[in-house]
Description:
Blueprint: H1 8-21, H2 30-46, H3 53-61, H4 63-86, H5 91-105, H6 108-111
Amino acid sequence: MDDTVARIDDAKELVKRFCENRDWDRFHNPKDLAIGISTEAGELLERFRFKTPEQCSELLSDPALSEGVREELADVFYFVLRFAQMNDIDLYSALEDKIAKNGEKYPVEKSRGNHRKYDELS
Length: 122
């Protein structure tokens, strides 16, 4: 199954079954899952540390090297899904709400092509 077919619910269920089969629910409280997200995001970041944009492109275009990036990204996704699943968070709705809020903070006419934070936009 790929992104064009899979649903977020399917991914949450996959993670849920994996963890329940291992009796891990008791270890997956909000704090530890948030730590997992941060830890795995750090491991993803480590793949790109001290690399130029060109080296990052080379890394991602090499199937052998990009596999590590793919795995770290999957680890981040796993913890995000597990956090949402364990705490009854609808990820798509949360994303829609956040995009709407960001749309107000970053109106197109002020932020297009501009990387400044919302409170620095004139």
